[in-house]
Specification:
Blueprint: H1 2-11, H2 13-21, H3 30-35, H4 38-57, H5 67-76, H6 81-108, H7 117-139, H8 144-158, H9 164-172
Helix pairs in contact: 4-6, 5-6, 6-7, 7-8, 8-9
The structure holds protoporphyrin IX containing FE.
Protoporphyrin IX containing FE binds next to helix 4, helix 6 and helix 7.
């Protein structure tokens, strides 16, 4: 307890806790109350994604030569591999859906207004991260769908005026699809 007191006095840890966890929100029950759980649902899916993603990574090989086969291997040989992959696949879709639903709830209820402007801005960052994970993760199976979806996505980004070529290069890691030369 002494260590906690020492840290609390010097870092203001409890204020961070109060700001994050104990801020009052308007009371809402029933169907409207359910809308307040969308953020936690997104958080929950993120946890599922982190755990299943970690498990998949133990058997996945991130190279154009072996990625496709390693995914087939996970599907057919690894114990519960298909289940873990299925959870990760659907989790990825639902995480985007829930993050957007949650954002719509925040928008339509005006919850982004004072004093939560910074929370909204942090949310914009999180949404970009979620979309980024979703876009990059889609390529990993390295099958036809993954390959061409990434060709299309990076080509669209490449049509941005002036900085397009640079953005496409950054997204692809080189001037074409495939490993870094
Ligand atoms: C990874 C994605 C996200 C996660 C895990 C997440 C999680 C949460 C959680 C658990 C809450 C509290 C409960 C609730 O209101 O549902 C919350 C509130 C909030 N979120 Fe998110 N969020 C995410 C994305 C976003 C996005 C995209 C925005 C908007 C651009 C946003 C803006 C806000 C705001 C303004 C609040 C405060 C609402 C209030 O106090 O009534 N969040 N978020």
């Amino acid at each position: 307890m002494k260590a906690y007191e020492w840290a609390r006095e010097r870092t203001g840890l409890d204020q961070i806790w109060t700001a994050l966890m104990e801020r009052k929100i308007p009371e809402a029950r029933g169907w409207v109350g359910l809308l307040y759980t969308l953020g936690s649902a997104t958080m929950m899916i993120f946890t599922v994604q982190a755990v299943t993603g970690f498990l998949l990574a133990t058997n996945y090989v991130p190279s154009p030569d072996h990625a496709y086969d390693s995914v087939r291997y996970i599907d057919s040989q690894v114990l519960f591999g298909r289940v873990v992959r299925g959870l990760h696949h659907w989790g990825a879709t639902f995480m985007v859906v829930f993050a957007v639903l949650h954002m719509m709830r925040v928008y339509f209820m005006g919850s982004y207004k004072y004093p939560r402007e910074a929370t909204w801005m942090a949310g914009v960052g999180l949404l970009l991260l979620v979309l980024g994970f979703s876009f990059t993760g889609y390529l990993l199976p390295w099958d036809q769908k993954a390959y061409w979806a990434t060709v299309v996505g990076t080509t669209i980004a490449g049509t941005t005026p002036f900085v397009g070529a640079m953005i496409a290069d950054i997204l692809r890691g080189s001037d074409g699809m495939g490993p870094r030369p």
